[in-house]
Amino acid sequence: MTEKALRLGTRRSKLALAQSGQVADAVRRVTGRPVELVEITTHGDVSREHLTQIGGTGVFVTALRDALVSGEVDFAVHSLKDLPTTQPDELVLAAVPVREDPRDVIVARDALKFTDLPRGARIGTGAPRRMAQLNAYARAHGLDIETVPIRGNVDTRIGFVRDGELDAVVLAAAGLNRIGRIDEVTDFLSVDTVLPAPGQGALAIECTAAAADLVAALGELDDPFTRAAVTAERSLLAALEAGCSAPVGALADHLADGQIVKEMRLRGVVGTTDGTRTVQLSTTGPVPQTHDQAMALGRELATEMLNQGAAGLMGERAQ
What we know:
The protein has helices spanning 14-31, 43-46, 62-69, 128-140, 154-162, 173-178, 212-218, 224-239, 291-307; strands at 6-10, 35-39, 75-79, 91-95, 104-108, 121-125, 145-149, 168-172, 187-188, 203-208, 248-257, 260-271, 278-286. By secondary structure, it is α/β, with parallel strands linked by helices.
């Protein structure tokens, strides 16, 4: 008798299906069980409003979590950067697999780099975080750009450039990698120019806390380095009391001495969307060995940022 298929809850977008398909393959390998994708429509997928207007935090997640709790699906795959920072008691992040490239990228007309865009170039992005940092960089380096709020999937966003409506759009490298379109990138933005969203490039595999056997099996896919990094980043975001649509960038990376990872560096930035004011700080410490240590690293940096006026740069602080 064949074992019952595990039901994997996923959003319906091309990117979500691509990353869920990759996770399904990995879960089949570690469990030996068949996995079927169950497509779920979320509020973020059907609403045409900008994410900041419909709540930002959780708009892509709630329907998937409801399906988990109701038993409609056995586990779900999320883009980690979409997850609210508070974890419901009945659900558990069973695995955070190895992270993809966390950087933001530009897809521009005429294969242009960011710094080669013409004066007055119109750059599309839906993220206040990207607007804040691009405008701050432009201001510091004498570039003249206009950031334009946009929504839509990868096809829609790149279409704005192909149609001549925009000079460039900003996207996540990880998403383009996962759908096989990384060759359309015209410029990779250094994390020194634009810090990514907390958790960007990482996936979260979630299931109910009660499914102990499944939690253990999915745990095989967990990457401790990635988990420590994203935990620190999300702890920073939570301590700033900011939602995932707030203009906060964060990245934890590992500092290695040869092959041996010695320390973790956490960088954070918050800024007004026009780029006139930013607070950017970093801290370095031993690689966290526990969840609590990773959380502490994020809180510590958030405290320093708040002491330097970060709260006043986030507009209304999302609860």
